Amino acid sequence: MKIAQVAPLYESVPPKLYGGTERIVHYLTEELVGAGHDVMLFASADSETSAVLEPIVPKALRLDNDVVDPLLPHLLMMDRVRRMAGEFDIIHFHTGCLHFPVFRECSTPHVTTLHGRLDIRELVPLIEAFPDTPLVSISDYQRRPVSLGNWVATVYHGLPEDLYTFRAEPGTYLAFLGRISPEKRVDRAIEIAIRAGMPLKIAAKVDKADREYFDQKIKHLLKHPLVEYIGEVNEREKNELLGNAYALLFPIDWPEPFGLVMIEAMACGTPVIAFRNGSVPEVMRHGATGFIVEDIKQAVAAVERIGEISRITCRKEFESRFSARRMANDYVQIYRQLSEKRKQRVSPTLKVLGMETVERLPMVGKLI
Fold first, then answer.
1. Residue 201: pLDDT above 70?
2. Through-space distance between the first and last CA atoms of the chain, rounded to whole angstroms
3. pLDDT in tens, 207-220
4. Among 3.40.50.2000, 3.40.50.12160, 3.40.50.300, 3.40.50.620, what is the CATH number of 2-158+325-363?
5. How many C-beta atoms surround the C-beta of residue 309 within 10 A?
6. Cα dist from 124 to 111, 120, 172, whole Å
7. Which residues contact 82 (CB under 8 A, 6 or more apart)?
8. Cβ distance 224 to 198 under 8 Å?
9. Which CATH code of 3.40.50.1820, 3.40.50.2000, 3.40.50.150, 3.30.70.20 fits the domain covering 174-321?
10. What is the spatial distance between Cα 294 and Cα 305, in angstroms, rounded to a whole number?
């Protein structure tokens, strides 16, 4: 198939450091190319891909200090994708709802994976205004606030099976990986580690929007002797951090749409201790790949019981449910279904005349 992958421009594909959506776009694109599909990736010029790269901006917008309005390059990208739409069998968007108005009447089949939280008041009427736009959720939980959307499937994220190294022996510290923000609750992770008497390694970025929160609520907590703040990490460093951890702490306080770090830990064989929010019960198997807890007291008790969890079971769960190959196969099935539906919607007259004939007979085309 001829497939267009349309990525956000905030990070490169794959991202240099933090950037979950762009990483998933990268893994999906590489799997599709490896399976023999003809793929074009719309992304920033500093992206690295086996597909044909259609660059929109010179570098990822987050790394470009001269960018004033990041929306404008995305609008430029939508226009370019629309003008090239006829070259593809399917267009796969990963850019939220930005393209909805532009592609309402597009004849090329397209599908949108929504990667973020959907419990946003203004989002409900927008999605309901485009009932024919095919949507993919990354968990069943994610789609609940907008259940009237045109959901065609749920596709869980996947990672390459050789990306993370399985380690059979547990480490001696707890790990926290992600962003330092109010909803990620690194403060909970610190309290859990201190109560359990175990070292905690924190690998996390601090966005500009969360800088005040970090300075006022978190910074002083990092001075505890059991706490080590590492900052942002790359893939190699993440592999070491997660693989050598005793357990991953995922003490979130928001409706997590997926939680990529949970499957990253599983790929290393590292169990997860997660608070029951959002998609956690879909991704985790309580008692098998870690423990799902309700509060800090339960989390501390889970640390004490983590030895009951088999690290090989965690790895096998990753391989069976969360590989990039499985993810790509799921999407190809969706692409083919949407392409087939498009063929079935073609007018019987067009089927008889053929598009070439219609183009030579403009009056017939108008009547049709």
1. yes
2. 28
3. 888 999 999 999 99
4. 3.40.50.2000
5. 22
6. 18, 7, 45
7. 102, 103, 106
8. no
9. 3.40.50.2000
10. 15
d(CA 177, CA 319): 21
Rounded (to 5) percent helix, strand, coil in the chain: 45, 15, 40
Quick one: which of 110, 218, 239 has its CA closest to 162?
239
β partners of residue 6: 42, 93
Q: d(Cα 25, Cα 28) in Å, to the nearest integer?
A: 5
Burial grade of 63 (CB within 10 A; 0-12, 13-18, 19 or more):
middle
Residue 344 φ/ψ region, left for φ over 0, alpha for ψ in the -120 to 50 degree band, beta for the rest: alpha
pLDDT at position 66 is 86
Mean pLDDT of 267-289: 97
Give the number of other CB atoms < 10 A from CB of residue 223: 8
Query: Residues 314-322: what's their mean pLDDT?
Result: 97
Tens-digit pLDDT profile for residues 33-43: 999 999 999 99
Alpha-carbon torsion angle 264, 143, 14, 79, nearest 10: 180
Where residue 65 falls (left for φ over 0; alpha for ψ -120 to 50; beta otherwise) is alpha
* Helix (H/G/I), strand (E/B), else coil: 155: coil
Is 90 exceeded by the pLDDT of residue 349?
no
Which one, of 170, 337, 122, lies nearest residue 270 by Cα? 170
